Amino acid sequence: MVQAIPDGARTVTPYLTIKGAAKALEFYKAAFGATELMRMPGPGGMVMHAEIRVGDSAVFLSDAFPGNKSPLELKGTPVAMHLYVEDCDAWWQRAVKAGCKVVMPLADQFWGDRFGQVRDPFGHLWSISTHVADPTPEEMEAAMAAMSAPAPKKRAKRRKKAAPPRAKKAVPKKPAKKPAANKKANKPARRR
Predict the structure, then answer these.
(1) Could you tell me the pLDDT band of residue 69, with boundaries at 50, 70 and 90?
(2) Is the distance from CB of 124 to CB of 16 less than 8 angstroms?
(3) Which domains are seen in the chain, by residue range?
(4) Can you give the pTM of this predicted structure?
């Protein structure tokens, strides 16, 4: 009898649309230690469907085609692949060395994970994480409150600097008016 769920599959499997899927397959091997499970070629060297395994999880991918655009064509993505791994620092270094760009630096986070996020050259986001602590809900709430509290303003004593003397505006001199001549004297007499 055919299995409803193939061996090794999970309930949720990410499916990435990529502009340049063949290059992405090689990139994911270098960046995340992926193993290629299968590849269905399409016309013109296109990848119609491929499957890789990253750690214990499958990821499906294909080339972008009309009606199915990649993050590069959409100018970004709101979705990230989240990787829980034993040594996030080693995974991080490998991903960045392979060409991922840092979005959020790897650091210990208030929720108990050492966590960071990168963007691959194909526009997909990847979070890389190792669980390092088990904070209580109260500890996490206090850490979140501290993060959202405004930073205290530093009051520095400032010396008032004496304002430099203002330069006087040069006012152009008006030409001297000629004395008005007697208007009556200059008018011709009226004839009657």
Answers:
(1) very high
(2) yes
(3) 9-64 (3.30.720.120), 75-141 (3.30.720.110)
(4) 0.74
